[in-house]
Amino acid sequence: APLTAEQLVARVAPWVYKLTRRAARIHRLDAEDLAQEAFLFITKRAHRYDSRRGKSSTWATVLVRTVVGLS
Predict the structure, then answer these.
(1) Angle 5-27/56-68 helices, nearest 10 degrees?
(2) Confidence (pLDDT) at 56
(3) From residue 19, how far is each of 4, 37, 48, 52 by CA, in Å?
(4) Of 17, 41, 42, 43, which Cα lies nearest the Cα of 31?
């Protein structure tokens, strides 16, 4: 069964926090603001995640990179 948005966010949360902290240091951004933006972005796109196409952490990485402006 597909994950709900809440389940997906819970699954990727530790990874997203790690990525946003790293990006905040590199790009001199506020880590909390960046994490909040990333979670909003992920939640709005949760319906697009397909576990048959890849791991949730990989999917979240692409979205976080988009939020940070690295894609």
Answers:
(1) 40
(2) 94
(3) 22, 13, 21, 23
(4) 17
Q: Are 8 and 48 in contact (CB under 8 A)?
A: no
| Higher-scoring residue by pLDDT: 1, 7 | 7
* pLDDT tens per residue, range 21-62: 988 888 888 888 989 999 999 999 999 999 999 999 999 999
Q: Which residue has the tokens 């790293």?
A: 22
The single-letter code of the amino acid at 62 is: V
The per-residue pLDDT for 27 is: 80
Contact indicator for 56, 11 with CB cutoff of 8 Å:
yes
- The type of residue at 23 is A
The set of residues, in sequence order, having a beta carbon less than 8 Å from that of 54 and lying 6+ positions away, is none
Q: Which single residue is written with the structure tokens 């994490």?
A: 35
